[in-house]
Amino acid sequence: EIGDPAAIPALQHALVLERQGVSLLPEASYALFLFGAQAVEPMIKIARDEDSEYTVWARDTNRAPAGTYAKAALVLGDLGDPRAIPVLLDLLKYKDPDPNPGTSRLLTNLVRQFAARALGRLRASQAVAPLLALVQTKDPQDADLVDSAAKALVWIGDRSVARELFKRAASGNIRERVSAAEAGSLLGDGSLQSEPASLSDRAVREGPSSCQKQVQELAIEAERDRACEAIAAQFASFALPLETQKRCGTNAACWRDNLSSPSALLRARSAYELGRLEVASAVPALVRAATDPDLTARVAAIRALERLTGIPAAKADLKAAMEPLAGQLQAEQGRAQFLRVDEDLRRLQVRLARL
Q: Among residues 188, 199, 73, 78, which one has the least CA distance to residue 137?
């Protein structure tokens, strides 16, 4: 029977299974999300190793614990229930026991990455300090984890960490530095306008061979003798959201106008600000922004709309958004570049239907 909680254990198994080489995760996680509050405690139990039947099944079928913890974190982030915050904070400190150091690090980062994103989705203020601790720039192996932790900080929206994020962007691996600086630009205020310029100046002074390597790591197109200029421009671009914050402040109309900026990063910052300011009248503009071809800007619009589902004045416009969002999902079906973000959009539709 549809909606029968008796199906939850089978769906938990499906989170870590494949059929003919195709992961069952997308549909299993979505089905568990549809259960809502009924799925929260069962998911917490497998994340804590408190479901003995699941534990025996996972051992007998040779399922790696890290896979279970990561997928459980994903579903708990979708469900959005604050009861999950303590277990997600525990998973943020996970250390995989695999005897192979390389494998252990890979699995450790995988679990922490999923936990970080889930805590960001929950806007868990308790997670700010441990998430910031994960934003380190020393090792390229941690790039995906750093990116997830930095994004989670943006979703939580604690502006106090912006200066430290720019500080950490001053040295180290380029991908991690860019993740930290981008997060700082999506959180910081006008007092930090000089930080991107400082990072840009530093890039210009680096040696050509170092800049060329950084360009390759970031997959930026640049002529060999202009690699340092390309890196400098990347950091300089983070100034515009900070300059705009100084100009717009809490002016919702100012931020709404910037949803159509040529700068994708400013479009993202504008969407986040409209959500943080809880501007109910911005829903139609944010729905349009949720079609942005830039993934950073699109995710920001979706996060803002998620935040506005808790604002009664936004309910009518959010309900009206269901049809255009459904059309967007249909039009983009099978388009790989939007696959991950459209999973978020799919869940947003369910939240709107439940208003």
A: 199
- How does pLDDT run across 287-322, given as a tens digit for each residue? 999 999 999 999 999 999 999 999 999 999 999 999
CATH class of 1-122: mainly alpha
Alpha helices by DSSP H, listed for 138-193, are 143-156, 162-168, 174-187
Nearest to residue 240, comparing CAs of 268, 207, 265, 274?
A: 265
Q: Please give the pLDDT value at position 1.
A: 57
Whole-model pTM: value is 0.96
How far apart CA 82 and CA 300 sit, in angstroms, is 21
Domain boundaries, the chain: 1-122, 130-247, 249-355
Give pLDDT tens digits for 2-23: 679 999 999 999 999 999 999 9
Do the beta carbons of residue 46 and residue 12 sit within 8 Å? yes
- Reply yes or no on domain 249-355 having CATH 1.25.10.10: yes
114-151 burial: b if 16+ Cβ within 10 Å, else e: bbbbbbbbbbbeebbebbbebbbbeeeebbbbbbbbbb
Which tokens is 346 given?
């799919």
